[in-house]
Amino acid sequence: YYFPCQRWLAVEEDDGQIVRELVPVDEAFVKKDTENGGQSLATLGLEQKAKSTTYTVKVKTGDKKNAGTDANVFITLYGSKDDTGIVRLKASKINKNKFERGKVDEFTVESVDIGDLKKIKIGHDNTGNSTGWFLEWVEIDAPSLGQCLKFPCGRWLDKSEDDGAIERIIFPAELQTIEYIP
Predict the structure, then answer these.
(1) Could you give the 3-state DSSP secondary structure of residue 117?
(2) 151 exposure class (CB count in 10 Å sphere: 0-12, 13-18, 19+)
(3) Which of 94, 119, 120, 141 has the CB geometry, 3.0–4.6 Å to 56, for a possible disulfide?
(4) How far apart are the C-alpha atoms of 116 and 68, rounded to whole Å?
């Protein structure tokens, strides 16, 4: 089995991810570029794309006093076929300082095909100075599936607020799901 990567594992490069899920590809794609006239890397990229899904994950921190968090936030996407495993939300595409009061952060999550999205688990590791976090909602857009789902939360993820939980399982709000042509 061959699991090529051809991507950065660095917070300050590419999409900021330091973990990658790799899909196995046919041995022919791994043969030297010269044998295939330099075409194999481009074809390899398409082959890998066909087996994986890219999700845009938007996370809205509530507009309440002390709503933001400095803790490390993670998410797991659960589908009808599989789940993504734990994905750390490291590099927001919008804000340098992520998960601040009233702000929306955007992340890219790549994974093998997990099927139709059923639920998510989101939480944090409770480290840093201000750890408590008020999560308003999570929105997950999967262009290859033609679906954008909203996961409403409106609760604290804080050991000293609400029920004391620092991770939550959230289901999508069916009325807020947007279907479009993939």
Answers:
(1) strand
(2) buried
(3) 141
(4) 30
Q: What is the pLDDT of residues 135-182, one digit of tens each?
A: 999 999 999 889 999 999 999 999 999 999 999 999 999 999 999 998
Type of residue found at 63: D
The structure tokens listed for 150 are: 């909203």
Q: Write b or e for each residue in 38-75: b if 16 or more Cβ atoms lie within 10 A of its Cβ, otherwise e.
A: eebeeebeebbeeeebebebbbbbbeeeebbbbbbbbb
Strands 87-88, 73-79: parallel, antiparallel or unpaired by DSSP? antiparallel
Domains in the chain, CATH or no CATH each = 53-179 (2.60.60.20)
Phi-psi region at 154: left, alpha or beta (left = phi > 0; alpha = psi -120 to 50): left
User: What ranges in the chain are assigned the alpha helix state H?
Assistant: 40-51
